Description:
Blueprint: E1 14-17, E2 20-23, H1 34-38, E3 41-43, E4 46-49, E5 52-53, H2 56-69, H3 78-90, E6 97-105, E7 119-126, H4 134-137, E8 141-150, H5 167-178, E9 183-188, E10 193-196, E11 200-205, E12 208-212, H6 221-232, E13 237-240, E14 252-257, E15 261-268, E16 271-272, H7 277-301
Parallel strand pairs: 8-9, 8-15, 12-13
Antiparallel strand pairs: 1-2, 1-7, 3-6, 4-5, 4-6, 6-7, 9-10, 11-12, 11-14, 14-15, 15-16
Helix pairs in contact: 2-3
Amino acid sequence: xxxxxxxxxxxxxxxxxxxxxxxxxxxxxxxxxxxxxxxxxxxxxxxxxxxxxxxxxxxxxxxxxxxxxxxxxxxxxxxxxxxxxxxxxxxxxxxxxxxxxxxxxxxxxxxxxxxxxxxxxxxxxxxxxxxxxxxxxxxxxxxxxxxxxxxxxxxxxxxxxxxxxxxxxxxxxxxxxxxxxxxxxxxxxxxxxxxxxxxxxxxxxxxxxxxxxxxxxxxxxxxxxxxxxxxxxxxxxxxxxxxxxxxxxxxxxxxxxxxxxxxxxxxxxxxxxxxxxxxxxxxxxxxxxxxxxxxxxxxxxx
Length: 302
């Protein structure tokens, strides 16, 4: 596994840059790039397991949806992006990896308007294990509550996986870690529970799975997978607006996301939880699911 202390601009190998594979160190952009100054950038986070990128087509479809919301036209087809994502892992010699496609506006025009800028695409892959320390993960991680709230859908493009929406997530994550927590839970603009800084959130209430309605934050692909897995287990799933005062009534809590996968939570500020049977079952089912796709593709090839 690549040591996380190695700066990302100093790593070895190649990545896909505007349709061509170039040496990692040569993948550069200008300091006056529109995406840097005006956040005209969208991206995806994907994982490859044993040579297969989990839900690749769904991730790519969301990348195109996000770009369209930000009025950017990706200069490649979804098929080309899918193929390049797989190749980005292959050229690095990875069978298990994190994959990051990113789309941004270039440096032809420097103003709020960005329609004269070329749209660029890059896809990089690197080895990245558990988002949280594995030893701590099974005990349940600790969250605080962010001072920042997820914005209303009429004030920000909340249906897009847009770089600009992560500013408050970075601030919240830094503040949480400074206090000794692993992450932060965010409320939405109405005061309902929303998500963590980079993952969706679930709770268990008397055998039922409860999760916030994804109406002002991303309906994560891992979130959708876990809901499907729960329903396959006949575990009732309730999507609702969750008020802060309801948190004391939940017994279990976990996060979901490409990076987080399924991560149990033991504490959110003054609220405590104990990772239990439903969390463990869905954690194991998710791991089985990501490798089931691998098994299915191998059977098809045979």
